[in-house]
C-alpha cells in the first residue's frame, strides 16, 4: 500500500512509514523545547550540572534527526514487516520524551 508522498527516483513512501516519521518529528520538537528550557535555565543560574543535560539532549536531537533521514531512505527499500517493529520502538521512545517533557515543564 502506498500513498501520494513521493520518495526519490519516483518511489512512494508507504503509509506505515509516515507515522514513524511523524513520531520522530514530534520527538525533535519536544527535545528542542526541552533544550531551550535548559539553556535558559543555564544562562540564569549557571549550574554546571545542566551542561551534562544539554549535551545529553543534544545527542538525542542528533539521534532523532539521523533517524528521520534513515527512515526516509529505509521506506524506499523495506516493507511493513520492519516498519511495525520500528513504530513500536518509536512509540515507547515518544512516551518517554512526553513524560520527561511534562516533568521538566513543571
Written account of the structure:
This protein has one domain. It has 106 residues and is mainly alpha-helical. The protein has three helices and two strands. The protein has a two-stranded antiparallel ribbon.
> What proportion strand?
5-15%
What is the helix/strand order? EEHHH
List low-confidence stretches: 1-8
Q: Main β-sheet, in a few words?
A: 2 strands, antiparallel
Number of strands: 2
Distance, first to last CA: 43 Å
How much helix, percentage-wise, in residues?
Answer: over 70%
Write the layout of secondary structure elements.
Blueprint: E1 2-6, E2 12-14, H1 17-45, H2 49-74, H3 80-105
Helix pairs in contact: 1-2, 1-3
Give a brief outline of the structure:
The protein has 106 residues and is mainly alpha-helical. It contains 3 helices and 2 strands. It has one domain.
Labels describing this entry:
2 strands; two-stranded antiparallel sheet; 106 residues; single chain; mainly alpha; 3 helices; disordered N terminus
Amino acid at each position: 500500500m502506498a500513498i501520494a508522498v513521493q520518495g526519490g527516483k519516483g518511489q512512494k513512501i508507504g503509509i506505515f512509514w509516515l507515522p514513524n516519521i511523524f513520531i520522530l518529528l514530534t520527538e525533535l520538537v519536544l527535545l528542542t523545547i526541552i533544550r531551550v528550557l535548559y539553556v535558559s535555565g543555564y544562562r540564569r543560574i549557571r549550574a554546571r550540572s545542566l551542561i551534562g543535560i544539554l549535551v545529553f539532549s543534544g545527542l538525542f536531537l542528533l539521534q532523532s534527526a539521523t533517524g528521520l533521514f534513515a527512515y526516509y531512505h529505509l521506506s524506499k527499500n523495506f516493507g511493513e514487516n520492519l516498519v511495525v517493529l520500528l513504530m513500536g520502538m518509536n512509540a515507547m521512545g515518544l512516551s518517554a520524551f512526553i513524560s520527561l517533557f511534562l516533568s521538566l515543564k513543571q
